[in-house]
Structures are given as structure tokens and as C-alpha cells.
Design brief:
This protein is mainly alpha-helical. 93% of the residues lie in helices and 0% in strands. It has helices spanning 9-128, 131-159.
Length: 161
Amino acid sequence: MKNLEEMNERELMIELLKSQKSDARAQKFAALGCLLLAVIIAAVALIMVPRMTSTLTQINGTLASVNEKLITVDGTLTQVNSAMSEVEKTVVQAQGSLSNIDGMVNNVNDLVQENTEELTNTISKINEIDFEKLNGSIKDLNAVIDDLRSVVAPLSRLLGR
């Protein structure tokens, strides 16, 4: 190819036409590539948009369900905290009661220890009682009272009482 300055008008025109044909062919390939790319993007959009919409709808439903469950869990945790607070109060009261019971047991133990000797003496004295002789004495006393009645009864009739 000659230098552009050495070419005449006709040769310049021929070179210009060749260049334009080459550029036109490249533009056609570029346009075809853009068209093919646009078709691919449209196909992907037609396939992916409904799937994405469906997926987003499912995600939204799942998040709503999770939110409801979290609200339920929060309420349950509040109830558990309240119950634990009540249990804690009950434990404190039980510890106080146990302390009081320990004191009472110690008092009873002291009372038993203090009175053990006296109780032993009293039981010994009760064991020394001869209940057969006591019953005989009571019978004898009843006989004496009956005899007194037989004597007092005629006197009281005599005196009018």
C-alpha cells in the first residue's frame, strides 16, 4: 500500500471504501454480539426474576414465622425469669425456715438434755410403785367409805338431812 500522500483520488476512494466495508463488517459483528448479549440477559431475566421473586416471598414468610417464634420465645423467657424469681424467693424463705427449724431442734435438744435426768428419776419412781398394793389400798378405802355411809345414812335420816 502506498503512502496516502502519493495516492490519487481514485486510489484514496478505493482505500476508503475498503476501510468502510471492514468497519461496517466489524460494526455488524459488534451489533450481533450486543443483540446476542441482550437476548441472553433477557432469557436469564425471564428465568431468574420469577425464581428470585418466589425465593424472596419464601424468605419473607420464613422471617415472619421466625419473628413470631422469637416473640413467643421472648414471652416464654419472661415467664421463666418470673418463675425463677419466685423460685429464688421460695428458696430464700425455705432457708430461713430451715434456720428456724434448726434453732427449734436445738431448743428441743437442749430441753431434752436438761430434763433427761429428771425424767429418768420420775420413771424410776413410777417403776417403784407397786400397783397391786395401790389397787388393794383403793379397795380397802372404798370399803371404809361404804362402811361410813352405812353409819352416816341412819344419822342423816335422824337429823332430817
